[in-house]
Amino acid sequence: MQDCYLIDAVRTGRGRLSRPKKGFIGEFAEIHPTSLGAMLVDAILGRNPSVPPEKVEDLIYSTTIAVKEQAQDIARWIVLASKLPVTTSGVHLNRFCSGSLQASAFANASIRVGDYDVVLAGGGEHMNRVPLGSDRNDPARLAITDAIREKYKIVPQGMSAEIISEKYGISQEEINAFSVRSQQKAHAATEAGKFKNEIIPIAYTDQDGNPQVLDRDSNIKPGTTAEKINALPRPFKEGGVIHAAASSGICDGSSMALWVSGDAAKEFGLKPRARILSNANWGVNPTEMLDGVIPGTRLALKRAGLTLDQIDRFEINEAFASVPLAWMKTLGIPEEKVNVNGGAIAMGHPLGATGGILLATMLNELEREDLRYGLITLCAAQGMSGTMIIERLS
Ligand SMILES: CC(C)(COP(=O)(O)OP(=O)(O)OC[C@H]1O[C@@H](n2cnc3c(N)ncnc32)[C@H](O)[C@@H]1OP(=O)(O)O)[C@@H](O)C(=O)NCCC(=O)NCCS
């Protein structure tokens, strides 16, 4: 088996959902998802000029709502829209919210067995142009069958977040406090410039026709208080605990990582920044859906031969506040090491992009703080989860 190294990981800022009634158009609303992905490809090639574009053999790219502008093999369209040559292939994958983490896991596995030397892996979601649910417009033509519905009660993810809160005894106070902390940490990290090395500034035109650049996550609400958010409606369950401020925000974004073999790193004079120690995918009951991160984390640790206390930083996707709270409580993970720069509750969750965003954030955090091991985990729809442990190398 050959070595595989992470050389770079970049992302866009998260662009907001348009609110036509409020006269606001999302930053990326007019940018095609293929173009957004191509901008990141060009940016990562630009940051690593010693890698000849013709040596990039494949782009593995995830989207979750794989219809309209995110349908077909969007990865290949991104290749053709970018500065990559026609010789670079492209493959689209869908593992819902953990899709772009899976893209990197597949890149790593393929390089290690010798199938590639240089691969790009990432994902994107344009929730303005391809809204949540637009892959379910025709109820008579869905992949799910009546037989599956008889076996499992399929509910919206927000409902699963309510089920998780009840199952793990997570209180309203804990949910509100966690949601406020996510906003505070994201705001502090942004103001401190902690995302600068990972975010590629993207030019756009605002609703007044003025040229602008998005170089940050635009959804953060630093004025959030527990009192204010407690008064918000509970959209998923009457009398429930999950409100909009405890849910990941709907937004647009993209992520991209450059993976190379040991030989390619040497040949192109690249500095290996990290390597993958383990990956774990885990399925749970699709009704509860969101707690696969718990067994997934256990398996990833076992595979890496590490214990929880050896992990320096954790990034868990804040799909809903009950998910990280249940995971921390069950596994005994100290919150001081978790999402130290905030998470999707504050910054948004562009589904297919988020795994790669967390990878970029983790890599930069380990480097900045001179730490070694990072664990990234995301719950995913239909009762799945993806978990990865990386080791910083330089
Ligand atoms: C929860 C959800 C339905 C809310 O959608 P929404 O109503 O469009 O959300 P908004 O951002 O408009 O927030 C609703 C209200 O809460 C307010 N709000 C949200 N966060 C807040 C905060 N931190 N502090 C104060 N108010 C807040 C908004 O300002 C808005 O108020 P308004 O109606 O007066 O304008 C949506 O965000 C969602 O479905 N999230 C989960 C996405 C998902 O399932 N992802 C995949 C699985 S992880």
Automatic annotation (TrEMBL):
Query: What domain of life does the native source organism fall in?
Result: Bacteria
Tell me where in this chain the Thiolase C-terminal domain is found.
270-392
Q: Does the keyword Acyltransferase apply?
A: yes
Q: Where is the Thiolase N-terminal domain?
A: 24-261
This protein's UniProt keywords: Acyltransferase, Transferase
Pfam families in the record, alphabetically? Answer: Thiolase_C (PF02803), Thiolase_N (PF00108)
Q: Which GO terms describe its molecular function?
A: acetyl-CoA C-acyltransferase activity
- SUPFAM superfamilies on file: Thiolase-like (SSF53901)
Active-site residues, record numbering mapped to chain: C97, H349, C379
CDD domains for the chain: thiolase
Q: Does the keyword rRNA-binding apply?
A: no
Q: Name the PANTHER family for this protein.
A: ACETYL-COA C-ACYLTRANSFERASE, BLR7806 PROTEIN
Into which family does the record put it?
Answer: Belongs to the thiolase-like superfamily. Thiolase family.
**UniProt name for this protein:** Acetyl-CoA acetyltransferase
Q: Which organism is it from?
A: Desulfosarcina widdelii
